[in-house]
Amino acid sequence: MNLSDEMVQVLRNSVLAWLATVDADGWPNVSPKEIFAPYTDPAGITAAIAIADIASPISVSNLRINPRACLSAVDIFRQVGYKVQGHVRIIAPCDAAFTEVSRGLLELTGGQYLVRHVLLLEVEQVRRIMAPSYHLFPERSEAQRVAQAMQAYGVQPVEPPTHS
């Protein structure tokens, strides 16, 4: 399943994503992921999400037992996101695909983190996530929602530079 432009934009606007895996006994594990990006393969198809394993030994261990996972990412200002389910392929630095698959992630780290593996989530199912306010206050515009979220989080919008 290919990711839509909207899904790609939400992923790029999300600060954190949450990866859910399950251990051998069926216990769930949810782990925050800071470095992740839509992955476009060499054929130009965006049907996966690359996730950096920076400090995720439990997630990796669980995925070795059961490769099914769910990643949830939300654009906190627009208050919308996606829950993405699929199978994960664990790609180690010694794998031939690592350089290609990790390229975008390494750019995001700015050289600050060691990427131990790339967790390549191959998208099989996607569901939209929306804040309850979308149902409670459908008349609100996206601009109103963004302004309210920024106020709630104490964030000031950045003014674009003026050129004289």
UniProtKB/TrEMBL annotation:
Domain Pyridoxamine 5'-phosphate oxidase N-terminal: start-end pairs: 3-113
InterPro entries: Pyridox_Oxase_N (IPR011576), Split_barrel_FMN-bd (IPR012349)
Pfam family, one: PNPOx_N
Domain of life: Bacteria
Entry protein name: Pyridoxamine 5'-phosphate oxidase family protein
